[in-house]
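F.,

This is the one I mentioned.
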């Protein structure tokens, strides 16, 4: 495992929020994703943040590009759940935000998270999918409404929570798919999520590449089969085959 860090001076304060970003072969976009977060790393601001990038064995320059733009760059076996759990283990803040590498935060996101966690144990943002397909606004609306009705969040909505709550829930289950849904179920036993109306902007490349309605049908079929008890390992194979 490789780790990069920073030193705090006597005038600095420790981070209040740890942003954990799992990465796998994201060299083309990781700099654009991390650059807007740099102002949040200043320990002199009211709510300082640390950025932890967890690389899952990229074959490109993802880790190298991320090093100057993160407080820690960790190496992990591939697997989003494994990577996020490792990042959480090295986090030092009392609150965690799990952010996909192709997702961008809205303005004042840290302040909104801090306020939300005063009354909730966990939460997520609404999402806006960005891409070529004209159906992406509809898909985004459907995702947000479904999440609001069910209390289930997906990883691309920017899930955040108290670190103590994450630990008590056992972290993300180390399964190859639906780890965000399973963690949501565990967290719902503690409280309903804070559903923030501010939107993270996430890449709609999956919908653009495969097709919007084909992707919708695939994801709903996989979720239904998961609800019926099909293993995440089997569903992950079906997901890879379909793509």
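My design for it:
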């Amino acid at each position: 495992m490789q780790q990069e860090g920073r030193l705090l001076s006597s005038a600095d304060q420790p981070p209040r929020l740890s942003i954990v970003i799992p990465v796998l072969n994201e060299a083309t976009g990781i700099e654009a994703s991390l650059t807007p977060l740099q102002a949040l790393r200043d320990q002199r601001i009211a709510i300082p943040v640390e950025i932890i990038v967890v690389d899952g064995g990229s074959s490109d320059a993802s880790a190298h590009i991320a090093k100057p733009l993160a407080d820690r760059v960790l190496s992990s076996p591939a697997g989003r759940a494994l990577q996020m759990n490792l990042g959480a283990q090295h986090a030092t803040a009392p609150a965690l935000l799990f952010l996909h590498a192709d997702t961008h935060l809205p303005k004042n996101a840290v302040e909104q998270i801090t306020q939300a966690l005063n009354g909730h144990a966990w939460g997520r943002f609404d999402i806006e999918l960005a891409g070529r397909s004209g159906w992406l606004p509809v898909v985004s609306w459907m995702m947000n409404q479904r999440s609001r009705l069910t209390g289930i969040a997906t990883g691309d909505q920017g899930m955040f929570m108290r670190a103590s709550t994450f630990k008590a829930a056992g972290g993300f289950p180390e399964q190859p798919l639906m780890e965000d849904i399973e963690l949501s179920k565990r967290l719902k036993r503690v409280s309903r999520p804070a559903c923030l109306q501010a939107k993270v902007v996430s890449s709609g490349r999956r919908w653009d590449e495969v097709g919007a309605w084909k992707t919708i049908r695939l994801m709903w079929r996989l979720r239904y089969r998961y609800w019926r008890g099909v293993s995440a390992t089997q569903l992950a194979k079906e997901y890879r085959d379909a793509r």
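The radius of gyration is 17 Å.

Talk soon.
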